[in-house]
Amino acid sequence: MQYRDTGVVLRTGKLGEADRIVTVITAQHGKVRAVAKGARRTRSKLAGHVEPLRHVDLQLYRGRGELDIVTGAVTLDRWPAVRTDLDRLGTAMTLAEAVDQSAHDRTEDPVPYRMLVGALNRLDRARAEMLLPAFLLRLLAHEGTAPMLDGCVVGTDCDDAPLVAFDPALGGTTCEVHRRGRTVSSRTLEVLRMILDGQVNAVLDTGPSAQTREAAAVVMHMWEHHMERRLRSADLLG
């Protein structure tokens, strides 16, 4: 079956002497893994279009195997400012890795694709310290694992006790009486609530601070707990 879709290349791998396996998050078909035959040859029409962090218009063929076949590809965007800035490139690679970890193969869910394109467009315009944490938190919420931030997840008889900690294993905040997890400030919790409430742009416009750094650490801890693995690309970030 022939089909066409737009997508962002998340990662690639070698196959044989000249082929390339590409993993793409698409607008209509979820995460797709496909073979780009001959893409590692210099004169290939696919070469350059099926590289990581390319926004592409793809033509594919789906057979009976696990891997589809790329029959055509045209680059729509390559986010040039991201590629010339190591910090932004590291963030972009981590965004792509997060989508790769969380998205399901061939699931018709357009949200991860739209989120990634939006995040990369924003990153191409300017750096934003909270872009990655906000993206990860929103992606977790989309997957149904949004944390509880407005009350204590341990006790029901502590409404007046301040929230002072966060435990991803319990799924949210804990109060002074039932403290579990890592200590977190009330201002950091407000940043996380703003992200989940859709006030992402306001958070992204916030300059670096102790609260943004703490929020980023909390979100990364949450991500690793739910995904049960690290984001290796994050190690490239300073």
Can you lay out the helices and strands and say which pair or pack?
Blueprint: E1 2-15, E2 19-26, E3 31-36, E4 55-61, E5 68-77, H1 80-83, H2 86-102, H3 111-125, H4 131-142, E6 163-167, E7 172-175, E8 182-183, H5 186-196, H6 200-204, H7 210-227
Parallel strand pairs: 3-5
Antiparallel strand pairs: 1-2, 1-4, 2-3, 4-5, 6-7, 6-8
Report the sheet with the most strands, covering strand number, pairing sense and barrel closure. Answer: 5 strands, mixed, barrel
Please, how many domains?
2
| Shape, per Cα inertia axes | elongated
Strand segment tally: 8
Strand order of the largest sheet: 1-2-3-5-4
Helix content: 25-40%
**First and last CA, distance:** 45 Å
- Average pLDDT, rounded to a whole number, is 94
Into which percentage range does the β-strand content fall?
Answer: 15-25%
**SS element count, helices:** 7
- Low-confidence sequence ranges: none
**Helix-and-strand structural type:** alpha+beta
State Rg. Answer: 20 Å
The ordered string of helix (H) and strand (E) elements is EEEEEHHHHEEEHHH
